[in-house]
Specification:
- The protein contains 16 helices and 19 strands.
- The chain has 497 residues and is α/β, with parallel strands linked by helices.
- Strands 1, 2, 3, 4, 7, 8, 9, 10, 11 and 12 form a 10-stranded mixed sheet that branches. The protein has a 4-stranded parallel sheet with strand order 13-14-15-18.
- Helix 1 packs across helix 2, helix 2 runs parallel beside helix 4 and helix 12 packs across helix 15.
- The N and C termini lie close together (6 Å).
- Bound molecules: iron/sulfur cluster (SF4).
- The site of iron/sulfur cluster has 13 residues, from loops.
Length: 497
């Protein structure tokens, strides 16, 4: 497996988002690693969600600008310097870039940018033994990159424990491809994505890290910039900083097993002006987000029940799908409505093949979430049978993947809830049922404030949505296809093999 050489990680102190300091530190990191960006240079930030309510969820614009300026300082023959991202599911990347304050950065630095959902998606064949499927799609600028810069945010994640360098790859797929295998096999999917591209340089925004959650993390002043040249080695050191054994984080272990780098500290050179021990001391108390849904809702008006997802031989809990999505949905609703926990009526949410009791009192709603939800038993005085709708992953062909429009989703969630008004339970279909759909369902059931109706969010969303749709319509008229079938041959130097 081609990676850029022996794994090296540089830990530097940086207590604030001072642009000049970030630029200098990152330039020195590039010098120490002997790297000069060249050819098509592509930087991938983490801009999953942004704006005032999501301040700690994304790579900060000062950090992005500092890294871009440092790359320009070290120009080794760049033919293009661009930033590209596909932000969180259903939200246009334009909306996220605007909320993050990225557009003025692009203007000041003169770099190009790609909204990954608006460029052609190309097919990358996979041949490694542990692959989930034989080919996957990625935006064309990713496939063509010669020098790939991974620029994530240092955060917890409710589905994959952490989101450092490797988890940031989920944004190199557009929604319709990202949602395939975004379930209990998510960690394997993340390992598969490493076969699309390898970074020459990684710089993580760990100045203010995000603890506990993914979309609405708790700010944690870590005061670090961490840089490196190998994803597995990099994520290994970041894991040790927060006191975790990287071998217990599945996507890191899978990538190590597939030859992408070491998880043994003795195989990684660590330098910088902060030792690993000092970094660990700074990170003391940092929370990760892996909490089972039953535990998460303890003491609230919501009772949760989780049975195993399909493929029981692999896991008894779907860490990568619907249960984690409801936790993120609730955190968003708590941000927008301080009275959410009081307002939400007593209700029950059920995931997977659950075969225990559900103690439903009169008037309480029961919501079965996800295609794999299954139950035989009584709800109140009614005997019910909920069948699994799960489709085997082998039947999901990325060539045929359909786009689920957010407005269509809003109408469909509304219709589902309306149709189930007099039924003993509600069924939300999907694999996974996204955070957005679960937000909408909870808003409609609970009568709490709707984030999609918040004036500032709605304005930014509508602008991004209309521009995205307009751009795609114009491309269709010009005969530019959404995706190109057949192995993409024009790979840049960042291709791993
Ligand atoms: S339906 Fe949801 S819980 Fe079930 S496997 Fe799919 S993502 Fe996981």
């Amino acid at each position: 497996m081609k990676t850029v050489g022996p794994a090296k990680v540089i830990i530097r102190r940086c207590e604030s988002y001072d642009l000049d300091a970030i630029r200098r530190i990152v330039r020195e990191g590039l010098e120490e690693l002997g790297l000069q960006p060249h050819g098509r240079t592509l930087l991938k930030p983490n801009c999953v969600s942004s704006g005032p309510m999501f301040q700690n969820a994304y790579t900060r614009p000062e950090f992005l600008e500092g890294v871009l300026l440092a790359l320009q300082d070290r120009d080794g023959g760049m033919t293009e310097l661009a930033v590209g991202e596909r932000c969180g599911i259903t939200i246009p990347t334009r909306t996220s870039f605007e909320g993050a304050g990225y557009y003025p950065v692009f203007k000041r630095t003169g770099v190009k940018h790609y909204h990954f959902e608006e460029v052609p998606q190309v097919e990358i064949p996979l041949t490694h033994e542990a692959r989930l499927r034989d080919y996957i799609f990625t935006p064309e600028p990713v496939a063509r990159a010669d020098f790939f810069v991974n620029c994530p945010k240092f955060k917890s994640h409710p589905w994959t424990t952490v989101t450092f360098a490797m988890k940031n790859y989920i944004g190199i797929q557009d929604d319709r491809h990202r949602l395939i295998d975004h379930d209990h096999r998510l960690n394997e999917k993340i390992a598969d994505l490493q076969h699309i591209i390898q970074p020459q340089f990684i710089a993580i925004d760990a100045i203010t890290a995000g603890a506990g959650r993914m979309l609405t993390p708790i700010p944690f002043d870590l005061g670090l910039i961490i840089m490196g040249n190998n994803s597995v080695g990099f994520d290994t050191v970041c894991s040790h900083i927060i006191g975790l054994d990287p071998e217990t984080i599945e996507h890191i272990r899978f990538a190590r097993e597939q030859g992408f780098g070491p998880t043994a500290l003795e195989d990684i050179t660590i330098t910088g002006d902060v030792s690993l021990e000092e970094a660990q001391a700074k990170a003391r108390g940092f929370q990760v987000g892996l909490v089972r849904v039953e535990k998460y809702f303890e003491g609230t008006h919501i009772s949760a029940y989780a049975g195993p997802p399909p493929e029981l031989e692999r896991t008894d809990y779907c860490w990568g799908g619907c249960p984690g999505a409801i936790e993120e949905a609730v955190e968003i609703l708590r941000l927008f409505d301080a009275d959410f926990d009081e307002k939400i009526p007593h209700m029950h949410v059920v995931f997977g093949a659950y075969d225990g009791p559900i103690d439903v009192k009169p008037g309480e709603k029961v919501v079965f979430i996800g295609d794999c939800a299954k139950f035989e038993g009584t709800l109140g005085d009614k005997l019910v049978s909920v069948k699994s709708l799960y489709r085997d992953r082998a039947t999901k062909d990325p060539h045929e993947a359909e786009h689920d429009d957010i407005l269509a989703k809003i109408f469909s969630v509304r219709a589902t809830l309306r149709d189930a008004r007099d039924e003993p339970f509600i069924r939300l279909e999907g694999c996974p049922v996204s955070v957005a759909e679960q937000v909408l369902a909870l808003v409609m059931i609970g009568g709490t404030k709707n984030p999609y109706m918040s004036a500032s969010e709605a304005m930014r969303f509508n602008k991004g949505y209309l521009m995205w749709k307009g751009t795609m319509a114009a491309k269709r008229l010009r005969g530019i296809p959404y995706q190109k079938h057949g192995a993409f041959e024009e790979r840049g130097e960042s291709a791993p093999e």
